[in-house]
Amino acid sequence: MITFLARLKGTCEYEILHALDAVYTAIQEQESVWKTASRVSCTDGCGACCVAFEPDVLDCEALYLALWLIENEPAAARSIRDGTYPMTRSDNPAGCFLYDPDNPYHCTVYGGRCLICRLFGYSGDHGKDGSTRWKPCRFLSETELSFHTPPLTHRQYESAELFSLFNALPPVMSDSMSQVLSLSPCSTGTTYPLREILPQAIQRMQFTLMYNALNPENPDNITPESA
Question: Is the pTM of this model over 0.85?
Fold first, then answer.
């Protein structure tokens, strides 16, 4: 939960982000059950999925990340908003600009990360019959998978087999996406490159925080830190 979220009460942004936070919490709980049952997890310090990838995100995802940055990394938030943050990495220009190759944990915004970043590696999809399917992350080596109990390979596992092996199913990416899309009924579902939409989202969140703090109908009358 982002503490600053409470400062948005009474705004449409609060309703959307409060609901998105609940979706993110549910994903975390579902993945926890799946990881415990399957005993499959990312290799420590991997980050390979972010090296050459930057997500396209919905407006609400960008707003959530913007609010997280304002609360947890205010200097970075100001730099991204003002266009002074380095948006291109020297090690891989196509990769996410919020990825730090020199940090063993790599993601610099882990608590505010976007939907696909939360689901990648731990989610499945639906087959034509609607059943859940799952395939191990392509960045897990064959050696790592072979040491798993039972041994796994880079192939698709169907619902019945997953229940047989783990007595559990992973969360499904499209189900979570449908939940997130439903949070903004007027949205067209358009996504935008993160580096394009995040500066605008930060500016919008800072303005909304400031306006809501000055709103006489705001019972808490909390004034946010200077942007």
Answer: yes
E strand map for the chain: 56-57, 125-126, 132-133, 192-193
Q: Which residue has the tokens 């808490």?
A: 220
pLDDT tens digits, one per residue of 88-105 = 998 998 899 999 998 888
- The type of residue at 194 is L
Separation CA 141–CA 43 (nearest Å) = 9
* CA atoms of 118 and 3, how far apart (whole Å): 20
Q: DSSP per residue over 11-44, as a string?
A: SHHHHHHHHHHHHHHHHHHHHHHHHHHH---PPT
State how far the Cα of 220 lies from the Cα of 182, in Å rounded to an integer.
29
Which DSSP state fits 5? G
Cα–Cα distance measured from residue 227 to residue 221, given in angstroms and rounded to the nearest whole number: 17
